[in-house]
Amino acid sequence: MKKVSFAEFGGPDVLRLLDAEEPHAGRGRIRIAVRAAGVNPVDWRIRTGQLQGIRPVELPAGVGHDAAGVVDEIGADVEGVRLGDQVFGYGANTYAEFAVLSAWAPIPDGLTFEEAAGYPSVVQTALRIIGQVGVRSGQTLLVSGASGGVGSAVLQIARDRGIAVIGTAGAANQDYLRGLGALATTYGDGWVERVRRLGRIDAALDLAGSGVIRELVELTGDPRKVISIADLGAPDFGVRYSGKSGDWQEAVTEAARLIARGKLRIPVEKSYPLAEAAAAHIDSQAGHTRGRRVLVV
């Protein structure tokens, strides 16, 4: 099979599309013929070696965790899924023609493989950090860097829970944020005062790692009410850096429920062939994403 891999840390040019042995579903796992794989910022952070101190990988390494496809192998002790089922979920080395998933759910009606592949990690992250920051119904959450995949999920999940949201993003994405139910403003000079004019901030999330931790603490008045998923220096300000953890099966199942209820929809900004994984990483790393980027197999 074809698989994207890298043998050294570095820029997107270290990614290679290689022939590799097919993986197989072990106990409690399924294998899918991948139709689409989600591209997440964590993928290129791992590729550059940024996360080696907290999420070490052994080289050479595959890439990717999110995928959607057709079940073609079922491991021992797995129930409720059949060969040929169309599923989306979380696994390992998903930038490939075949991948093993450890958490999955049926693709909701009306979703393409490309759309479904973009949900697992962003929904798991959104659920996790909303819970960690402790924001409740009736309160206001500030989301810095709100237009990407995680931000799109946070805004919609928060709205479903009765939480008001203020989101910052580039000028081109202001209407997009408003369409997801958020009060929106741009980042850049004067952004703190623009946020203050929109309302009191009870909690804040840093999704972009753009050096705004100090200001988020200032706006909330408490570093414990700020969570970052993108700034490794956040603990210097007493702010928690939240890496991937939690119940992946619960997150994928909840994603399917929210989609089916019409409470969650994340657009695919751009799709790329598997051979163009490097281009997808370049675009992801540049930011300004509206929704998700995916690889098509």
Spatial shape: globular
Fill in the CATH topology of the largest domain: Quinone Oxidoreductase, Chain A, domain 1
Query: How many DSSP E strands?
Result: 15
Structural class: alpha/beta
- CATH fourth-tier homologous superfamily of the largest domain: Medium-chain alcohol dehydrogenases, catalytic domain
CATH class of the largest domain: Alpha Beta
- The radius of gyration is 19 Å
Tell me what the CATH architecture of the largest domain is: Alpha-Beta Complex
Protein name: Zinc-binding dehydrogenase
Pfam families: ADH_N (PF08240), ADH_zinc_N_2 (PF13602)
Domain Enoyl reductase (ER): 10-295
Main location: cytoplasm
In words, what does this structure look like?
- InterPro entries: ADH-like_N, ER, GroES-like_sf, NAD(P)-bd_dom_sf, Quin_OxRdtase/zeta-crystal_CS, Zinc-ADH_QOR/CCCR.
- GO terms for molecular function: oxidoreductase activity; RNA binding; zinc ion binding.
- This protein has helices spanning 41-48, 113-117, 120-133, 149-160, 174-179, 191-198, 213-220, 248-260, 277-286, and strands spanning 2-6, 16-19, 30-39, 61-62, 66-74, 86-92, 98-106, 140-144, 164-169, 183-186, 203-206, 226-228, 240-241, 268-273, 292-296.
- The protein has 297 residues and is α/β, with parallel strands linked by helices.
- It folds into two domains: 2-118 and 267-296, Quinone Oxidoreductase, Chain A, domain 1; 124-241, Rossmann fold (3-Layer(aba) Sandwich), CATH 3.40.50.
- The strands form three sheets. Strands 3, 5, 6, 7, 14 and 15 form a six-stranded mixed beta sheet that branches.
- Helix 3 (120-133) crosses helix 8 (248-260).
- The radius of gyration is 19 Å and the shape is globular.
- The chain starts with a strand and ends with a strand.
